[in-house]
Specification:
Layout lengths: L2 H7 L15 E9 L5 H11 L3 H17 L3 H9 L1 E6 L4 H7 L3 H9 L6 E2 L5 E3 L11 H8 L3 E3 L8 E10 L3 H12 L5 E8 L1
Parallel strand pairs: 1-7, 2-3, 2-6, 6-7
Antiparallel strand pairs: 4-5
């Protein structure tokens, strides 16, 4: 992406430390605000449905770079004592089989180009519940839809870590909040949520 697209074309999103976030979430950070019907929506659509993985890796690289540059000081200190580990939001196996890949994992592969963080092992965390589309649902409906959607298969990579949950778009937070809760129940620390866009 050109410098103009990165710095001028899209509206930057503000990081949030929100009191309505669950206890297991530390901060939510997105690169840009979602532009419905715009170029960013088209990029994310192409990543997910037209197999443009290079787009996802580049967006992940930009996300990782921006987060590191703007990382709150207390995080930088804690990152020295607890290892951050990237946790791409898992897809249910039926959706992954249909799509052929997980876009959150592709974004994570871009993030590791600017960090020394690991990506959690494929299969360590799975989505056990095939959920209906979240579009048009409010937060309560989305949360109910996602209740117990994730399962930790093995948590060797998660003990004493700071989970960095990665997804393409943050809308109400229902998906990432449920994953953060599952991670906390398995002994991980409070999660950081990183997404390309915030709706």
């Amino acid at each position: 992406m050109c410098d103009w697209c990165v710095n001028e074309r899209f509206e930057p999103a503000q990081p949030e430390r929100n009191e309505i976030f669950p206890e297991c979430v530390r901060i939510q950070f997105s690169l840009w605000n979602f532009d419905k019907g715009g170029y960013l929506q088209q990029l994310l659509h192409d990543l997910k449905y037209n197999n443009l993985r290079g787009v996802g890796e580049e967006l992940g690289y930009l996300l990782g770079r921006k987060f590191i540059q703007g990382c709150p000081e207390d995080f930088s200190t804690e990152f020295e004592t607890k290892k951050p580990v990237l946790v791409p939001v898992p897809l249910h196996r039926s959706k992954r089989r249909k799509r052929g890949f997980n876009q959150a994992r592709v974004i994570s592969e871009g993030i590791i180009k600017v960090t020394d963080w690991d990506i959690v092992d494929l299969g360590a965390i799975i989505r056990v519940k095939s959920t209906k589309t979240q579009t048009g649902l409010n937060l309560a409906q989305r949360s109910e839809n996602l209740n117990n959607a994730f399962k930790i298969v093995h948590n060797d990579d998660l003990n004493e870590t700071i989970p960095i949950i990665v997804d393409d778009v943050f809308t109400t937070g229902a998906t990432t909040f449920e994953l953060a809760k599952t991670l906390a129940d398995a002994g991980a620390g409070k999660s950081v949520i990183l997404t390309i866009a915030k709706a």
